Give the backbone structure.
Amino acid sequence: MTAVATARAPALSTATKATATLEALLAPYARLAEDERLPARAYAVLRKAIRELRLLPGQLVLEQDVATALGISRTPIREAMVLLQAEGLGQLIPRHGFAVAPVSPHDLREVNQIMFGLEGVAVALAAEHASPEGMAALEASVVAQERALETDDVLAWAEADERFHHLIAELSGNARLAQLIVSFDNLQHRARLLTIRLRPRPVASTTEHRAVMTAIQRGDAEQARAFHQAHFQRGRAEILRVLEAMTPGIAGTEATPPAHEGAKQ
């Protein structure tokens, strides 16, 4: 009886699988900042992947895996990771890699306390300084939220929601204030995405956004600020309740991230 050898495909190593998975996760952002220096490009790709939960809270990524996935050397990757650590998006762990920052209720409470004041000032200033072009962009972001609700596209809604809040910061006319708001928004943005499918449909938030926008449009700084702060307190309390109920998943990998391709609630 003749033994017949069965050909087998070589098994992929764990490291190869990890690199392939990481490459797939970063693929949607691979063309970001292509004209920039390599550290800036690596920073832009990793920052976007962390903010959009392609890289989950608590996830550990290796410099070499990222370098291979992006097709560049490790040195620019490390420079990018240093910048991300300074921004509070993760922590470099010697000889282990980069740990994506967790999304914890404690940290979110602290950031909320800061953002409550910063965004309140921005809304009042926007009512005093907003240009017609700026108001048109703000209106478009609210309309985009309303349309996303009609189709139950929560990810499109989240994108329009982010644009609404960033536009208010820009319309304040205070560049330093806008920069502060964007820097503190990293944690809030990830918390919103992490909990968005576990919260009620954002009908109330969209209605509140239109009320804030209308007050800004009228130039009523006091009412715009009052509307915004009521919205802020309600919305952030809702997110915190869900986040607290997600333990231990809030640290990262146990939590289910939102789908990224054509996802709808």
